Fold this protein.
Amino acid sequence: MSAAPHRRINVGQGEHLVTDDPSVLLTTILGSCVAMCLRDPVAGVGGMNHFLLPEGEGDGAGAARRYGAYAMEVLVNDCLKAGGRRERLEAKLFGGGRMFDALRDVGEANADFAERFLRDEGIAHVGGSLRGPGGRRIQYWPVSGRAMQRPVADAMAATPVFRQPAPVVDAGALELF
């Protein structure tokens, strides 16, 4: 007997999705962004969001969708509307990678925000992978709560090639002491 086919849905920046369909597989690719994978295991409902920055200005129809403050609230609220109960919610957090050696680490700020949000809201943080170098691909089955992460290979971060310096040819040079 073969397993039922998965219905793969990508969650991009500023998006979220909630479902109770066990065949749905949510996917995203993260760098410094963070995704929260949230579910109520009793109600069999869950979802994923994907945010770019911790906080910012804007209305829900536009720019605000990219910010964690909006993305986290809307995912929690939509899980509750779909039959979840706040006291049973459990979350996995992914992303917040350090993508560049810059003065401000956006990934760290995103990770800090997401962890603080879960603490403040009393939502159980049951797993995931935050911070660290580089990006990651996330697959999440919201009804079962299963998550899988794979690193994103960065072609620009390939191992540097060591080159032997060219030999110095003495063409009658004069050496001074």
